[in-house]
Amino acid sequence: MEEMRKKTGVRCLGNGENGFRHFSTRNKAIKSVDDMKGLKIRVMESPVYMALVRSLGASPVPISWGEVYMASSRVLSTAGGPISLIESMKFNEITKNIILDGHIYSFLPLSSTTNSSCR
Questions:
Q1: Lower CB count within 10 Å: N or C terminus of the chain?
Q2: Pairwise CA distance, residues 54 & 37, whole Å
Q3: Kind of pairing between the strands at 40-43 and 10-25
Q4: Residues near 6 by beta carbon (within 8 Å), at least 6 away in sequence
């Protein structure tokens, strides 16, 4: 961490928890991997996340976080996230099923910078 601070001016102050991500679907209950085939699943624009969704037989759709609610109600078969975000972002209003698969765990680093070029 100290090397990163010296190199970039970014200091990690601590970590929070975002939790495990779970899929939530509008219409289709997922009971097995075979049920994922043909679904359009929102992902971050990351080769790793896109490969994960493809490996399940679904189609990854990279969409920015701010557009997920609208896309989930119209275009996507499923979105997903930690339970706390599914509720706070009101995805529970537009999805019928939550699949507690825990496919990704994410943490939230808390950082600050002293590097004026990062502002």
A1: C
A2: 9
A3: unpaired
A4: none
Question: What's the pLDDT tens digit per position in 47-99?
Answer: 999 999 999 999 999 888 788 777 777 777 777 788 888 888 888 888 888 88
Q: Which residue has the tokens 């090397």?
A: 3
Give the whole-angstrom CA distance, residue 55 versus residue 32: 13
Element (H, E) at 48: helix 47-55
Predicted TM-score of the model (pTM): 0.72
Q: Which DSSP helix (H) or strand (E) runs through 110? A: strand 97-113
Per-residue buried b or exposed e for 24-61, using 16+ beta carbons within 10 Å of the residue's own CB = bbbeeebeeeebbeebbbbbeeeeebbebbeebebbbb
What is the rounded distance in angstroms from the CA atom of residue 42 to the CA atom of residue 13?
30
> What is the enclosing helix (H) or strand (E) of 119?
none
- Residues, the chain: 119
